[in-house]
Specification:
CATH class of the largest domain: Mainly Alpha
Number of strands: 0
CATH topology of the largest domain: Tetracycline Repressor, domain 2
CATH architecture of the largest domain: Orthogonal Bundle
Structural class: mainly alpha
Number of helices: 11
Number of domains: 2
Distance between the termini: 43 Å
Largest sheet: none
Length: 205
C-alpha cells in the first residue's frame, strides 16, 4: 500500500471534520491536531483553509474531467460516449460523496479567485458533454429539435442532485441508479433510427 502524503491526509481529515462540525467551526489547529501534524506542515501544502476547500472540489472535478475525456477518446459513437460519461459522472457521487457534499454546502465561502477556477473546470466538463450531444445531433442519433445546451444542462442538473439523496446503504447501488439515469436520458434524446444501438444500454423490460 502506498503511503499517503501529508497533503492527502490533510484533505481526508478536513473532509471528515467539515462534514462533522461544519467548515466554519473547524480551524487549521483542529485539522493538524486530528492527524498529528504541525501547522507548518499544513501551510507548506495550503496557504489557507480557503485553498483547502478548493482542493476538496478539485479532487473530484479533475477526476470527472479526466475520465470523461478518456471515455470520449475510447469510444467511437455518440451513444457509447454519452453512456460512458454518464457512468463516470454518477460514479463520482459514490466515490467522493463527502467531498461533493461539503463543496455544495460551503462553496459560498470560497474567494473569487478559487470560484473562478472552479467555474472554468466545470465549464470544461460541460463542454465535453455538450460536444458529445452536438455530435450525436449532427449524426442524427440524438433528436435535433432539442436544444443542445438545454439537454446538456438537464443531464448535469439531474445527476448533480444525487449528492442530496444517494445513500450507499440505500436499496439501490450507484450502478443501478446509473442504469436508471442512462435509460431515462436515452429514451428522451435518441432518435428512432438509433434506437437499436441505444437499447443495449437500456433497462430490459
Amino acid at each position: 500500500m502506498v503511503k499517503k502524503t501529508l497533503k492527502q491526509r490533510i484533505v481526508e481529515a478536513s473532509v471528515e471534520l467539515f462534514q462533522q462540525d461544519g467548515y466554519h467551526n473547524v480551524t487549521v489547529d483542529c485539522i493538524v491536531d486530528y492527524i498529528g501534524a504541525s501547522k507548518g506542515g499544513f501551510y507548506h501544502n495550503f496557504k489557507s483553509k480557503d485553498e483547502l476547500l478548493y482542493e476538496i472540489h478539485d479532487v473530484f472535478i479533475s477526476y470527472v474531467i479526466q475520465q470523461s475525456q478518456d471515455a470520449y477518446d475510447k469510444y467511437d459513437t455518440p451513444i457509447k460516449r454519452l453512456c460512458a460519461m454518464l457512468q463516470t459522472l454518477t460514479q463520482v457521487f459514490d466515490m467522493y460523496q463527502a467531498h461533493i457534499t461539503i463543496f455544495y454546502e460551503e462553496s459560498r465561502s470560497l474567494s473569487d479567485e478559487y470560484s473562478d477556477i472552479i467555474h472554468k473546470k466545470r465549464d470544461h466538463y460541460r463542454d465535453i458533454l455538450q460536444k458529445v450531444i452536438a455530435e450525436g445531433q449532427e449524426a442524427k442519433v440524438f433528436r435535433t429539435e432539442l436544444p443542445c445546451t438545454i439537454v446538456t444542462m438537464a443531464i448535469v442538473g439531474m445527476i448533480n442532485w444525487t449528492y442530496k439523496w444517494f445513500k450507499q446503504s440505500g436499496p439501490l447501488t450507484m450502478e443501478q441508479i446509473t442504469d436508471v439515469f442512462t435509460d431515462m436520458v436515452l429514451r428522451a434524446i435518441v432518435t428512432e433510427q438509433a434506437m437499436d444501438e441505444a437499447k443495449q444500454f437500456m433497462i430490459k423490460g
